[in-house]
Amino acid sequence: MVGVDRNSFNEFPRTEWMAWKSGLYDNQDRLPRLPTFSDYAIQHPAGVEGFDPRTMSASAAVRYALDKTWLLVKGVSTKNLGAKEQFPRLASQLVHGHLKSYFAGAEHCSGCADMQRAADGEANLGSPEIWRRLGTIHHITSAVDQLDALP
After folding, report:
1. What is the number of other CB atoms lying within 10 angstroms of the CB of residue 38?
2. 3-state SS, residue 76
3. Which of 26, 34, 77, 114 has its CA 20 to 30 A from that of 8?
4. Residues 111-122 as b or e (16 or more Cβ within 10 Å = b)
5. How far is CA 135 from the centre of its chain?
6. What is the per-residue DSSP string for 105-132?
7. DSSP conformation class of 30
């Protein structure tokens, strides 16, 4: 989440997708075999190296895949304001607020449906683990849709 100030958002390129699409897929006629697309999704599966939640703080954050970029929405340290309070607020910004033009809609996938439910006040959708799951569901659905749309 470097490059995103607290209580703000920013977009960053989906580098793996863009490199695969323009560097490999678009040039597949020159390759003996097209490599399968793969990326780290919303976070590397090994997590953040050396992160110890007992001594280090993390901000509430939403990672949301767009066509060519990642939308990163950041709150504040969960030691200052609990995740259960922050994630519904961040969800509301994405679903109903100033970031709603980025939201794919609740019908896009079960991750987006749960994001909408969180924005609408449903309990039990306010932890970093849940939001990594929701973001991953959305990302995988989006990536499969993009791959399926290729000629």
Report:
1. 9
2. strand
3. 114
4. bbbbbbbbbeee
5. 4
6. -TTS-HHHHHHHHHHTT-SS--SHHHHH
7. G
**Domain residue ranges in the chain:** 8-25+59-149
CB-CB contact of 93 with 73 (8 Å): yes
Q: Output the six-digit token pair for 105.
A: 């809609």
CA atoms within 13 A on the CB side of 97: 13
Q: What is the per-residue pLDDT for 43?
A: 75
Q: Indicate the pLDDT class of residue 56, thresholds 50, 70 and 90.
A: confident
- Amino acid 146 reads Q
- Residue-wise pLDDT tens digits, 64-122: 999 999 999 999 988 899 899 999 999 999 999 999 999 999 999 999 999 999 999 99
For residue 22, give the DSSP letter: I
The two structure tokens encoding residue 49: 């190296």
Give the max Cα distance, the chain: 54
